[in-house]
Amino acid sequence: MRLSIIAAVAANRVIGRNNRLPFHQSTDLKRFKALTMGHHVLMGRKTYGDDVAKPLPGRANVVITNNPSFAAQGVAIARSVDEAIAKAGASGDDEVFILGGGEIFRQTIHRADRMYITQIHAEVEGDTFFPEFDDVNEWHLTDREDFEADEKNEYPFSFLTYDRASDAAGNPVPFDEQGG
Fold first, then answer.
1. What does the angle CA 8 – CA 14 – CA 20 come to, to the nearest 5 degrees?
2. pTM to 2 decimal places
3. I need a surface site. Which of 46, 77, 113, 132 has the fewest CB within 10 A?
């Protein structure tokens, strides 16, 4: 099973403001849907409750929360990132997507196999940030597409795909072996 992070990230690493996306990029939302459809999507309770607010159709939604009173129709609940990954892994899904928020990204960035980043080429105001990552030793950029702003996309942006660095045999290098 591939564990993939998917996020839209501003030039100043902002991913959220007041528990919402701080920008609306139509092309990014279409890509998000195309990539995640038919797969498990794992997200924190704040991301689910404030930005998603209902299960994403066509995907198995897993909400990560340590709030024992949290309940929502149509989603599985996990009490930790490990439990969420185990639930998705037990399904046989070949790729599982981490949707955020900031704390969930911090807990998974060194465990993920791939990152689909929409890099927004603008600095925006926000209160939630994507964690810094090593794009030399830990991650390698494997694909890039650039786009200009238009009537449906407020800012210019790039689709970036990063894969975890691998050893000479092609095996992913665990983060702790990379000097991290």
1. 75
2. 0.92
3. 132
